[in-house]
Write a structure and sequence with these properties.
There is one protein chain. The protein is α+β, with helices and mostly antiparallel strands and 82 residues long. The longest helix is centred in the first third of the chain and has 14 residues. The chain has one domain: 3-Layer(aba) Sandwich (Glutaredoxin), CATH 3.40.30. The two termini are 14 Å apart. It contains three helices and four strands, in the order E-H-H-E-E-E-H. Helices cover 35% and strands 20% of the residues. It has a four-stranded mixed sheet with strand order 2-1-3-4, covered by helices on one side.
């Protein structure tokens, strides 16, 4: 699975770096570092809806620290069968 967190201006201002840290710690917690490629993207085209994350070919917008756990479960754990 490939995951890209937007770090463009709008997403940066909405907390994309905090989301990256949450993603890193969640991948570590579930032992998924060998199954997931985590990277950054400079723009996913959803500037008014950020923070945006691309999970393979699907873009999910409006990710925040408050809803991160649900997004992670829905878009990472469930597709990986966990």
């Amino acid at each position: 699975m490939n995951i890209s967190v937007c770090v463009g201006s709008s997403c940066h201002l909405r907390g994309s770096y905090a989301i990256i840290e949450l993603m890193k710690s969640s991948l570590e917690r579930y032992g998924l570092n060998d199954k997931v490629n985590l990277g950054a993207a400079f723009c996913l085209g959803k500037c008014t809806e950020g923070v945006s994350i691309r999970f393979d070919d699907e873009i999910v917008s409006g990710v925040s620290e408050q809803n991160f756990d649900e997004v992670f479960k829905t878009h990472v754990l469930t597709p990986l069968g966990l």
